[in-house]
Amino acid sequence: MSAEPEESVVQQGRDEGASATGSERTPRYEEERGGAGTPDNFQRLWTPHRMAYIKGEGRPTGAGEDDGCPFCEIPRMPDEEGLVVSRGTSVFTVLNLYPYNSGHLMVVPYRHVADYGDLDEAEYLELATFTQRALTALRKCSGAQGFNVGMNLGLVAGAGIAAHLHQHVVPRWGGDTNFMPVVGHTKVLPQLLRDTRQMLADAWPAS
């Protein structure tokens, strides 16, 4: 699950998605369309699955527990379907559906609360414990060299789902941010979410 050189992934996509014509490379989709448009020097990675995120599909329609909150719905699903890594008494861990890096997970209270100050003692103690276990599991199965850990509280702070508190745990490796996300706003992930979930579940420390 550790980061692989993204340049090689891009080059592979170029080799598979283009055909050489002299010194230029013409994308296959342009050939199939009969050459409509003028070829340029840009290579493109098409990510239509990201449209669900852009349109906000799956986000709550309101602030209430019954307004389509995914963090309230996920615990009712089987672990594989909901991408749940581990369940506790007061909190659970789940993979982020739109990860910044492979293994990006969240520690979430079952109770529908928006602010850290709304957690009771049992909830914030278990949230801290599960955060520690997440770090241990990620180090064990991915060799993570560092982490970004934290919460975005409120819409103005960048919370995608502000009505239900969740703490992010993002594993980091040297060189995991290069030209692809910085310039191309594209993240290459080397492992499918279901495979990542199983790997982390297997590595999760015993209570």
UniProtKB/TrEMBL annotation:
Instruction: Provide the species name.
Output: Actinomadura livida
Q: Which PROSITE patterns match?
A: HIT_2 (PS51084)
Pfam family membership, one: HIT
Active site positions, chain numbering: H166 (tele-amp-histidine intermediate)
Q: Note down the stretches annotated as region Disordered.
A: 1-43
Q: Output this protein's name.
A: ATP adenylyltransferase
Specify the HIT domain's residue ranges.
70-179
Question: EC number(s) in its UniProt entry?
Answer: 2.7.7.53
Going by the entry's taxonomy, the superkingdom of the source organism is recorded as: Bacteria
